[in-house]
Amino acid sequence: MKKVGARRTIENALRRYGFVCVAGVDEVGRGCLAGPVMAGAVILDPERHIPGLADSKALTDKARERLYDVIVVKATSWAVASVEPAEIDSINIHQASLQAMRRAVLSLAPLPDAVLVDAFRIPSLLMAQRGIIKGDRQCAAIAAASIVAKVTRDRLMDRLHVDDPRYGFDRHKGYATADHLSAVSRHGYSIVHRRSFRPPTLFDAIQTADTEIC
Question: pTM for this structure?
Answer without folding.
Answer: 0.89
